[in-house]
Automatic annotation (TrEMBL):
Region ranges (Disordered): 1-60
Compositional bias (Pro residues): 42-55
PANTHER family assigned to the protein according to its UniProt record, in alphabetical order: ZINC FINGER PROTEIN 292, ZINC FINGER PROTEIN RLF
Any one GO cellular component localisation term in the record: nucleus
Transmembrane annotation, as ranges: 347-367
GO molecular function: DNA binding; DNA-binding transcription factor activity, RNA polymerase II-specific; zinc ion binding
Listed InterPro entries: GH-ZnFinger_Regulators, UPF0708
UniProt feature, compositional bias: Basic and acidic residues: 19-30
Keywords associated with the record: Membrane, Transmembrane, Transmembrane helix
Protein name as it appears in the record: Zinc finger protein 292
Length: 395
């Protein structure tokens, strides 16, 4: 019992109980109903009158409940900047109208609207050239501003077409950008790092798109592309820019994948070693690496393996890239383990010898430190029996 409290006797407890019972009997029971001035008003007998209708509750957002996930209120689409109709039928109508507009826009871009878009792109690039020529800013800042605006413009127009659906308009975008860059190059200083970087990225994007074309360009289209790239490369070489070298190398062929030596390599037919080495040296490591990556991406592993093996064995090309690693990756992906071991037996043998030497040296150091250490030596060829032998002290 807490301190400061006295224990009540049984008589006092009984007295308190009686007092509570008498007080309850004295007070009349409370009844539900209206209370007037003289007391509670008794309800008339009979059925209760109907309750008045409740006022319309304010609109509340619905609860979205998933099994195993606590219920939470979903955000109203209007709060996220999305305007949707509450009526399902109206929403379906809006969705169908939006899809129709998207299809019409796609038809416009793939049809006659493509020429109009490319014409507007040329006009915007001409405006960038004019601003660069009339700029009063320092040469480095003006060149950086031009490169930044050029990239933003190309990104805006490149997003209008998909590589898998409309690759030719994208190729037109890249060629128009290269022509515009060649015109603006005399006004761009080489002190700005973005000048060479933008041209190199543009050439890489163009090569990657050409490698991914589902169908080869027609003879007329390829001849136009060849002329454009060769003229641009010669003009840029006069100012000391060689970033279009591998694109110009690709343009010298009769097609992206039409080289006779390349076709022989990919078909895994008997090869002329001199012609293969000449072809590899002509293409260079950048273009060859992009070809191998494209073949791997399109699940042509046998062709990628054959090309990567030749590149890794070339005396010059093999030292300028990661062709050996790429070749091993292709082998691990496409070849069984027996072939992988057979192909890399010299490398694996060297690794085993190095590992054995390391283990022997560690054992020598350990035994030299503890001269009385017991050593275990396997004397049975099958490894079933072992003999324990104590060694003498090391001198």
């Amino acid at each position: 019992m807490p301190r400061g409290h006295r224990a009540l006797s049984p008589a006092a407890l009984r007295r308190g109980k009686l007092l509570r019972l008498e007080s309850r009997r004295a007070d009349p029971p409370k009844r539900c109903g209206l209370r007037g001035a003289d007391g509670p008003v008794q309800q008339p007998p009979g059925p209760r009158p109907p309750k008045p209708p409740l006022a319309a509750a304010p609109h509340r957002r619905p609860l979205y409940v998933r099994p195993g996930v606590p219920a939470h209120r979903a955000r109203d689409p209007a709060e996220r900047g999305i305007v949707l109709s509450r009526d399902p039928g109206a929403y379906a109508t809006e969705r169908a109208a939006k899809m129709a507009d998207d299809e019409a826009e796609q038809e416009r871009l793939s049809g006659g609207g493509c020429a109009a878009e490319l014409r507007r792109l040329g006009e915007r690039l001409q405006e960038l050239e004019r601003r660069l020529c009339e700029s009063r800013e320092p040469a480095v800042e003006a060149a950086a501003a031009y490169c930044r605006q050029l990239c933003q413009t190309l990104l805006e127009y490149a997003e209008k077409w998909k590589t898998s659906e409309d690759p030719l308009p994208l190729l037109e975008v890249y060629t128009v950008a290269i022509q515009s860059y060649v015109k603006a190059r005399p006004y761009l200083t080489s002190e700005c790092e973005s000048v060479a970087l933008v041209l190199e990225r543009l050439a890489l994007s163009c090569v990657e798109l050409l490698l991914c074309l589902p169908v080869e360009l027609s003879d007329k289209q390829w001849e136009q592309f060849q002329t454009l790239v060769q003229v641009a490369h010669e003009t840029l070489m006069e100012s000391g820019s060689c970033e279009l070298h591998f694109l110009a190398t690709l343009a010298q062929e009769s097609g992206v994948w039409k080289n006779a030596v390349l076709s022989t390599i990919l078909s895994q037919e008997p090869l002329d070693k001199d012609k293969v080495n000449e072809f590899l040296a002509f293409e260079g490591p950048i273009l060859l690496d992009m070809r191998i990556k494209h073949l791997i991406k399109t699940n042509q592993l046998s062709q990628a393996t054959a090309l990567a093996k030749l590149c890794s064995e070339h005396p010059e090309i093999g030292t300028k890239g990661s062709f050996k690693q790429t070749y091993l990756v292709c082998l691990c992906t496409s070849s069984p383990n027996e072939k992988l071991i057979e192909e890399n037996k010299p490398v694996m043998a060297f690794g085993l010898v190095a590992l054995s030497l390391c283990v022997a040296y560690i054992g020598y150091l350990h035994a030299a430190q503890e001269n009385k250490k017991d050593l275990y030596e396997a004397i049975d060829s099958e490894g079933h029996r072992h003999k324990r032998r104590k060694t003498s002290k090391w001198d």
